[in-house]
Amino acid sequence: MTELASKLDDVTQRFAAAVDRANDEQALESVRVAYLGRNGEVTAVRRAIGALPPGERPEAGRVINDAVAAMERRLQAAHGELESRAFDAELAASIDVTFPSIRRPAGSIHPVRRIIEESCAYFVRHGFAVVVGPEAEPDYYTFDALNIPSDHPAREGFDSFWISDTLLLRPHTSPMQIRTMQQHRPPIAIVAPGKCFRRDAVDARHLFQFHQVEGLLVAEGINFGHLKGMLTGLCRELFGAQQNVRFRPSYFPFTEPSAEVDTTCPKCKGTGLLGSQSCNMCGGSAWIELGGAGMVHPSVLTEVGYDPDRYSGWAFGFGVERLGLTRYEVDDIRRFTKSDPNFLAQLS
Ligand code: PHE
């Protein structure tokens, strides 16, 4: 019996060492066959029972069975360990926690909106209110009240989308001058951004739907110098501290005098030159056109019930997409309508 026990001891010790060495399923299976298989080492020990006195045989069988059960548990544990090691290796191979994460594409403020917001912020800082109004307007606000009666040739300059005989998509934001003045007594100071519509053929510099920013200041003692000062400030806000403005005589029925407003070309810094070439932004003229402006016409003040002998005011209207062409050095105004994420990301 002691001989059998020490033999069993030897077998289980060598078995344990072999299991520890086995580092894959195949090696483990070979160990199982070598020790617990039909012709394995344990079977050889079991055969030795026959040589024992009959009284010792049951005890010897029990000891061997216990040893076999322990060996089988050991094998089971080794299987589990190999499996979890394989799983860890797979994880390590497929997940790299130091790998940089994917950057989610973030949107940005559209350049048209940005220019509107910055323009409004500038005027709000100077005490102006922001007002918005309808995009479909009666002809009264669009034309008649702005000193453009129905037979006036200036109407042809506003080739409009008419909804009915008297209702149209506004071709400018100037109707907001009338709406504001009819609702408030002077002094008033407003900025009115919004969408406008004209039946223009679309090309690199024209859209049939675009945005304007309108400004209006009416109070006692307002003069053209105030207009020039505010617009110079606006251009410096949008294009940089070096900007200047100039006024060219022009005509609008609702302002007198009227002017087209230009600002120094921000690309060539008002020189008209880029190196030895003429500037491709301003065509070498050194100036960029922004829009119209002027002193509010006395007929308009009278129409809204303001006394033109007591009050005076200035107004201007700028095209936002046109400002965008210059500010962002864009070659084609249609880009502002295309929502191309690559284009927008470049400008943000
Ligand atoms: N409403 C004019 C236009 O769209 C611009 C303008 C506004 C001119 C205010 C003078 C004063 O062309």
What labels would you give this structure?
single chain, 348 residues, alpha+beta, BirA Bifunctional Protein, domain 2, 7-stranded mixed sheet, 11 helices, 11 strands, binds phenylalanine
Task: Give the tally of structural domains.
Answer: 2
Ligands in the model, by name, code or SMILES, are: phenylalanine
- Major sheet: arrangement of strands: 1-4-5-11-10-7-6
CATH-derived topology of the largest domain: BirA Bifunctional Protein, domain 2
Globular, elongated, flat, extended or rod-shaped: what is the shape?
Answer: rod-shaped
Q: What portion of the residues fall into strands of 2 or more residues? A: 15-25%
Describe this structure as you would to a colleague:
The chain has 348 residues and is of the alpha+beta class. It has eleven helices and eleven strands. The protein has helices spanning 2-21, 25-36, 41-47, 57-94, 111-125, 139-142, 175-183, 224-239, 298-303, 320-327, 341-347, and strands at residues 129-130, 136-138, 167-169, 188-197, 209-219, 245-252, 255-264, 273-274, 277-278, 287-296, 312-319. Helix 1 (2-21) packs antiparallel against helix 2, helix 2 runs antiparallel to helix 4 (57-94) and helix 5 packs across helix 10. The chain starts with a helix and ends with a helix. The model has no long low-confidence stretch (mean pLDDT 93). Phenylalanine (PHE) is lined by residues 172, 174, 252, 255, 291-294, 315-317.
What is the topology?
Layout (H helix, E strand, L loop, with lengths): L1 H20 L3 H12 L4 H7 L9 H38 L16 H15 L3 E2 L5 E3 H4 L24 E3 L5 H9 L4 E10 L11 E11 L4 H16 L5 E8 L2 E10 L8 E2 L2 E2 L8 E10 L1 H6 L8 E8 H8 L13 H7 L1
Parallel strand pairs: 1-4
Antiparallel strand pairs: 2-3, 4-5, 5-11, 6-7, 7-10, 8-9, 10-11
Helix pairs in contact: 1-2, 1-4, 2-4, 5-8, 5-10
